[in-house]
Each structure stands twice: as structure tokens, then as C-alpha cells.
Amino acid sequence: MKKVAVILSGCGVFDGAEIHEAVISLLALSRLGADYHCFAPDIPQHHVINHLTGQVSEGETRNVLVEAARISRGQIRDVKELDAADFDALLLPGGFGAAKNLCDFAFTGAKTHLQPDVLRACQSFAVAGKPAAYLCIAPVMIPLIYGEGTLVTIGDDQETAAAIEAMGGAHLACPVNEFVVDQERKVISTPAYMLAGSIAEAAEGIEKTIKQLLVMC
Q: What is the pLDDT averaged over residues 152-178?
């Protein structure tokens, strides 16, 4: 049985992990016979968004690990404890939390920095040569983990693609139902809700990506 580490960024598309992407991913892993365990950084969210109004909830604070535990039904650990030696592969769903809590891409663009514990964990899989998959906006982190020239996609958003290129990545346009693989570095990316107009569209590309991830283990 393949073991996959999943890094979540909170709970909710605008300030945490994209819930559809996370649940589709966990379901796909389970259906394909893989075991998984979730991780998240034990840090405050950048901010809290009222998902009904879309506005920042002033004065409210939440913890990324605590919020991510909602998705994982409490079965989650601090990303500081994540060791690539214990797993066969890595998976990062998207959502704005990936660009606000796991890194600061939402605010700094091409000058992005990764949260240190997340960077260490992701780099440990890269160094070990173990496959990883990044969904939706999460692929913006790939150039800072895998280095210059790594193939990556976020779909076809020109501004985001340009930022990836500025960070040293090699962006390839990709439809929502497909994925891009850098075979040498064993890293996969798919657009998911960067392009998806429905949960069904998001699921098609994510499920293909999960299958490829497990094949590469």
C-alpha cells in the first residue's frame, strides 16, 4: 500500500485549502488503495475570510492546523513532523491558503517565500526523489522547491504563468482535465479550480493526477 502525505493550508477556498480539491484528492487516494495522512503548519492564518460575503473578518484569527483538521476529521499532524522517509509521495491541494499560508504568493508574486516548515517538508521529497503533486495555485511553489527549469502548470492564467517563469519555472498551458509532469524531477501539476467551472471538471484532472502520482511511486 502506497503512503501519501497531504499538506493542507487551512479550510476554505479564500483563506485555506480548497475543500473540493482536498476531498476529491483524499477520496481518489482511498479508492486507488493508497494510505494517506494529512499535515499542516501550526501557524496563524494570514487572515480570515467570511465565505458568505467574501470580506475579511476583522479581528478574527484562526490557526491553519486547527482549521485543516476540519477536513481531515482530526487526523492531522504539524508539518514539522513530516518526514519524506515515512511516505512514498506528497500531495498539496490548492485554495488561496496555499498562496497565503503555505507561501506568500498572493501578496508578493514572483518574490514569493515559502513558510519554512513547508519548504523543508517539500524539499525533503524532492531530495529523496519521491513523486509529488501540486494542484490549482499550489504549483507556484514548485520552482522554489525544485529549481530552475522545472515544468509546471496552473492552467492558462498569463499573469500567474509569468510569475512562475520569473521564479525560474517553465510553465506549460494545460486544460482542466489534464496535468503536466516533470519526469526528471517527479513533480506533477494540474489546474483544478484555476480553470474548473464545476466540481466535476475539477475532479477529472485531479483524479488523473492522483493516478499518475501513484504510478510514479
A: 98
For the full predicted model, state whether its pTM sits above 0.70.
yes
Residues classed as catalytic: 136
Summarize pLDDT for 90-129 with one digit per residue, the tens.
999 999 999 999 999 999 999 999 999 999 999 999 999 9
pLDDT digits (tens, 9 = 90+) for 45-62: 999 999 999 999 999 999
Measured at the alpha carbon of residue 149, what is the angle toward residues 145 and 154, in degrees to the nearest 5?
70
3-state SS, one letter per residue, for the chain: CCEEEEECCCCCCCCCCCHHHHHHHHHHHHHCCCEEEEEECCCECCCCECCCCCCECCCCCCEHHHHHHHHCCCCEEEHHHCCHHHCCEEEECCCHHHHHCCECHHHHHHHCCECHHHHHHHHHHHHHCCCEEEECCHHHHHHHHHCCCCEECCCCCHHHHHHHHHCCCEECCCCCCCCEEECCCCEEEECHHHCCCCHHHHHHHHHHHHHHHHHCC
